[in-house]
Inverse folding.
């Protein structure tokens, strides 16, 4: 494992995109920053620009409107990077599947532009912050194999 | 000094300041976390961040002008290294660098801000251009009171524009800050330092949740790491400048001299962090009002007091 990969695991910067979520998942993402969970302990911080990010945290169903924009944001991230699909909606469009305004699910949307993208699924509606931390740890484990 | 000595000082001071700055960045993040009742990152976190960014790719926006975009952070980092060398050298040996090094340092410390503007404008992003225009206004606001405040110290030390001269003069008459004009000037310099470091309440140029890191929005990978290192070195260098100009520098003849220098230095850094944590962000127009109509008149009053004190021989004025 190269030094930079080790450092990448120790310092994952997160950029959060709401791709048509009901806002409940977003509240849980913000809970990660609070004193109770404090993901800065693991070196993770929320950043304001996709160009600074290593993790793309996507919440929501990925509607037709956001689809090209989500792809664009993914392309703007410097590689290597990880996608975190948070919530039942982002995993498989949840109860909104086959609704008229759906694009493709988040993983299909991302894989359309980068077939080798690393995607981590966090099930739940909304997932608990603990589940998101567990997912981030899984991501770190996976990055070891790069 | 012979050339090889200069090279050794440059490399030593540059790398040392970089490591010190990254450590101070951790102090910043840790104290912030404690203020917010969090645990905060481990001590090596800022260094890990830099190493990580070195391994990522550098993306070039289609709208960017490559040369200016990538050259700006490198020049900024280099100027910080030069400024750090001059400051540490004059701290260690007050009789060295050269006449007028204070002016050179003030100019060098303005270059990172200029480079930020250049890099941000070259990136062609609207967020970055808003940030660049704010950075320019910020520079115009704080430079004048900062220079006036330093002029107070210069006037009190018998008009020497040499950093070492300031330190030696203070060794004879006592630190500048222990007088009315000196204390006012130091206060102004601390607020200007906050603006120069781009920290809350004066972080309009990169306002994270408003214009998405503003000036740095398009930077990624090693180029971003360059900017972070520049900012870290700035955090290490600015308190050093203040200690040297206003607070007596380093007394090298006894062990407690080093201890008291360390105490003053850390005190200034923690002050910066606490100001950052207890204040909301000011809008750019409020910032300019604070500096032009609030601090500049106070700085002029301090300068007049210092001149009167010098002319009449009143030490405490
Ligand atoms: S997964 Fe549930 S909580 Fe999250 S956005 Fe979808 S509906 Fe809302």
């Amino acid at each position: 494992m190269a030094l930079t990969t080790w450092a990448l695991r120790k310092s994952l910067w997160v950029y959060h995109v709401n791709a048509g979520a009901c806002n409940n998942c977003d509240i849980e993402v913000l809970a990660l920053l609070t004193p109770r969970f404090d993901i800065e302990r693991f070196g993770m911080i929320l950043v304001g620009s996709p160009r600074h990010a290593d993790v793309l945290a996507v919440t929501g169903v990925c509607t037709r409107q956001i689809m090209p924009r989500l792809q664009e944001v993914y392309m703007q991230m410097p590689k290597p990077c990880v996608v975190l699909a948070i919530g039942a909606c982002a995993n498989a469009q949840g109860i909104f599947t086959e609704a008229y305004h759906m694009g493709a699910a988040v993983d299909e949307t991302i894989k359309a532009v980068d077939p080798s993208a690393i995607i981590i699924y966090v099930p739940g509606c909304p997932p608990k912050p603990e589940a998101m931390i567990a997912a981030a740890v899984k991501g770190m484990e996976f990055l070891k194999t790069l | 000094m012979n050339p090889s000595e200069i090279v050794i000082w440059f490399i030593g001071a540059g790398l040392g300041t970089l490591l010190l700055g990254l450590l101070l960045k951790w102090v910043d993040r840790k104290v912030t976390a404690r203020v917010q009742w969090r645990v905060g990152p481990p001590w090596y976190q800022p260094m890990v961040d830099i190493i990580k960014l070195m391994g990522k790719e550098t993306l070039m926006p289609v709208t960017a002008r490559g040369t200016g975009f990538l050259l700006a952070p490198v020049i900024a980092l280099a100027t910080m290294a030069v400024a750090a060398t001059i400051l540490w050298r004059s701290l260690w040996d007050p009789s060295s660098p050269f006449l007028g090094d204070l002016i050179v340092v003030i100019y060098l410390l303005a270059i990172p801000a200029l480079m930020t503007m250049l890099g941000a404008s070259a990136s062609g992003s609207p967020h970055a251009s808003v940030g660049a225009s704010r950075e320019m206004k910020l520079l115009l606001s704080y430079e004048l009171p900062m220079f006036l405040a330093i002029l107070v110290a210069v006037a009190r030390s018998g008009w020497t524009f040499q950093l070492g001269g300031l330190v030696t003069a203070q060794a004879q008459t006592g630190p500048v800050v222990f007088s009315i004009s000196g204390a006012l000037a130091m206060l102004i310099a601390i607020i200007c330092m906050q603006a120069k470091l781009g920290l809350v309440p004066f972080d309009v140029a990169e306002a994270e949740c408003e214009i998405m890191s503003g000036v740095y929005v398009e930077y990624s990978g090693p180029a971003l790491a360059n900017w972070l290192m520049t900012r870290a070195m700035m955090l290490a260098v600015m308190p050093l400048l203040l200690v040297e100009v206003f607070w007596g520098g380093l007394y090298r003849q006894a062990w407690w001299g080093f201890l008291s220098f360390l105490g003053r230095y850390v005190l200034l850094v923690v002050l910066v962090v606490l100001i950052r944590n207890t204040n909301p962000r000011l809008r750019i127009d409020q910032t300019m009002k604070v500096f032009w109509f609030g601090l500049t008149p106070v700085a002029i009053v301090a300068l007049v007091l210092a001149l009167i004190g010098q002319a009449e021989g009143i030490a405490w004025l």
